[in-house]
Amino acid sequence: MVKNSNRRGFAHSLLITFGMATTLAVPAGAQVLQDPLRDVVKPVEQVRQQVEQRLQERLLEDARLDAELADVVDVVELAEDTARRTLQSTTGEALFVEVTLPNGDPVIEREWLVLATSDTQTRLRALGANVVAEKELSALGMTLLRFRVPEQLDSREQLEQHLPAQSHGSLSRHFVYRAQASGEDAQPSHSDAQLQQTKWCDAEVKIGMVDTKIMTEHAAFAHQPITQKTFTDARLEQPLAHGTAVAGLLVGRSAKYASLLPNARLYNGAVFYRQNALHQGAALMPLLEALNWLAEAQVKVINVSLTGPHSPLFAQAVKQLANQGIVLVAAAGNNGPLAPAVYPAAYEDVIAVTAVAADHAIYRWANQGDYIEFASLGVRITTARRDGNTGFESGTSMAAPVVAAAAACWLENNSGASLAALRSFLQGSAEDLGETGHDSVFGHGLIYLE
């Protein structure tokens, strides 16, 4: 089930007219009406200024990443089609192509997933499809087929004409998901009431995450055992920055910041590959494999700091985990307040977390919507960096681990409690921000331990 993801405020599209002035002759004695565009032009100008500032920040961040990422995977991007990217191994072998669908969803070209049955597999082969892999995910209660189709069959309409009816509900594009954090953010703080990252509990809780590979040799993890397994193609380069930062918040030890769960046993399913010098992606199949592995490890709380499109298979996996008492905490997304809902955060059985700065101001690029449940500190957070040092990170990815830690600590003392009971506890602990009660910006409010 998907949460109600309607957003208040602006509609999905905004019509803006610039540079238009009109002078009207007003008859003597006539009442002059207030300019009806005045209340529109002001917020439009604010949006324009924010966009310009964001572009400047991105340019600075791109320059920083270009300097850091000298040893990246060889990526070929066609100049005439920026929505198409061929991923190659470090030896130059073409592995697959990423494309962007007309609705903006990133996918692996001509690849699909479906629940496996003998009838479905037989029909796929008869159609000339290439069955790339068959995976049994027992903890998720599913066996999946990953297959590649000829170009003329690369649509749901075409495939449903040929596949058995019982397979239609699980048929899914092979979507690609992205991490939700950025480097140092310049969002200013205007209050003396500054939040600080703080420890949630000393218990030896077991907690999971699905992310990039962690740089386990970082000094922050010297005394903290981390179990991680990679689910991406070994021929692709695996990025380290995002997973290292998230793990640093959860279990890292440093004199510069407080670990959320200093004694936790952390399990990480590494699912990301480097797309180019600036971006990283995680395909749906490895993502589901990682969730299955964490469920088999009997992890009760999983932090998922990534976002992407809805998939019926992703939704089914989330529901299966919830039925087993496994809690998913997800980043709300960094696509801006007008962006549509993202997944898995918008699924009913997932706790969606947005980010605020130290003065309680909302992170300027955080998604907004009715699916937002809680807010936590996520702007200019000090954590472990892939270069072996510590530094600032921002984004809803940095906020989600706070709520994941709070959930893990509470469940440690309330074994067997339901997701509804956990939500009730978190709602009772949250500090209301913004509009009274639940709102689409802060959800139920701030999760923070004094």
UniProtKB/TrEMBL annotation:
One of its GO terms (molecular function) is serine-type endopeptidase activity. Keywords: Hydrolase, Protease, Serine protease. The keyword Protease applies. GO terms for biological process: proteolysis. Residues 204-445 form the Peptidase S8/S53 domain. Pfam families: Peptidase_S8. InterPro entries: Peptidase_S8/S53_dom, Peptidase_S8/S53_dom_sf, Peptidase_S8_Ser-AS, Peptidase_S8_subtilisin-like, Peptidase_S8_subtilisin-rel. The active site is at D211 (charge relay system), H242 (charge relay system), S397 (charge relay system). Belongs to the peptidase S8 family. This is Peptidase S8. The lineage of its organism: Bacteria, Pseudomonadati, Pseudomonadota, Gammaproteobacteria, Alteromonadales.
